[in-house]
Specification:
Helix content: over 70%
Oligomer: single chain
Number of strands: 0
Shape: globular
Radius of gyration: 20 Å
Length: 185
């Protein structure tokens, strides 16, 4: 009897800790304008998959498993009205970013250190109540100007976005900038 109780207790604690350790969807990689509820729905569907990706599973297999889980949940009306396109976009971004962080943790750490200095004034402004979307635009401009000091948004971001002359920047800069500004809110 004592062994059975011990085994049940271990099983219960294991399931609690496994649930508590489920990887969240990084909010900084959700598509622009995504509401918190859609992120939560996606998180409930793909957290175990993000755990696997954070531990080395490849993007392709994780992406396929996530898309299948989302498709089944949408068909079963288990997504609080959110559609496949939005939930899939959230999951694909989350998987890509989680995989990138797994592959290049030192790069993300270095970029975070750089951006804490580069964006310090914007971070303080957001902490003081500045609009997040305005802050993101300013952060992107600073990141572009750090890559190319001649970058001028009034000249280089004119017309259709496919004609914008924006310096190439590692996408990790955007992810980390969004993360820092979200934390500042």
């Amino acid at each position: 009897m004592k062994k059975i109780i011990t085994l049940l207790l271990i099983a219960a604690l294991s399931s609690i800790s496994a649930t508590a350790l489920a990887a969240p969807v990084p909010k900084e990689c959700a598509p622009y304008g995504t509401d918190e509820a859609a992120i939560t729905v996606t998180e409930n569907l793909i957290s175990p998959i993000l755990d696997s990706v954070a531990n080395g599973e490849g993007y392709g297999s994780a992406s396929a498993i996530a898309n299948t889980a989302i498709r089944k949940a949408v068909i079963a009306n288990q997504t609080n009205g959110y559609g496949y396109a939005l939930l899939s976009a959230i999951s694909q971004n989350a998987i890509r970013v989680t995989r990138d962080i797994y592959m290049r943790p030192d790069v993300y750490k270095q970029i975070e250190d750089e951006l804490r200095v580069l964006l310090a004034d914007i971070i303080v402004d957001v902490q003081s109540g500045k609009d997040y979307n305005t802050a993101i635009q300013e952060a992107h401009t600073k990141i572009y100007q750090a890559a190319d000091p001649s970058y001028n948004p009034a000249v280089d971001r004119v017309g259709d976005f496919c004609y914008w002359d924006i310096p190439p920047v590692d996408s990790a800069y955007y992810i980390v900038a969004h993360k820092l500004l979200l934390q500042a809110q």
